[in-house]
Design a protein that fits this description.
This protein is mostly helical. The longest helix has about 30 residues, at about 5-35. It has helices at about 5-35, 45-65, 70-85, 95-120. The protein has 4 helices and no strands. It is elongated, with a radius of gyration of 16 Å.
Amino acid sequence: MNRLFVPVMRWTARIAGSLIALLFLAIFVGESLSVGPPNLLERPLPEIIDFGAIILAWLGLLLAWRLQMLGGLYTLVGLLIFMIVEGKLWINWVFGLLGLVGLVHLLCGALTEKRMTMRH
């Protein structure tokens, strides 16, 4: 495999993931400023689970900068929980890109780990 493939894919996933994380943060801040911070105690259980799933996916995007496989796993598990609660496999292109970024982080982490074990 080309030696540039993994670094290019890693940085592509990092940049795309950072943009998605900033988008989620902007939406959260905008909502909090317009209607106040979310009071999860007053929300139905599916909304609480959705909120937790998005936080998990968001944390995965940040974690993937240092621990690619774990960050990718958090991102994908958060997305999967969100899709199950919503009852939809496809929500919109942002969530599709979120899933792709999580998969790329997992792939790059696995390829990096494989390369490291082959050296020893």
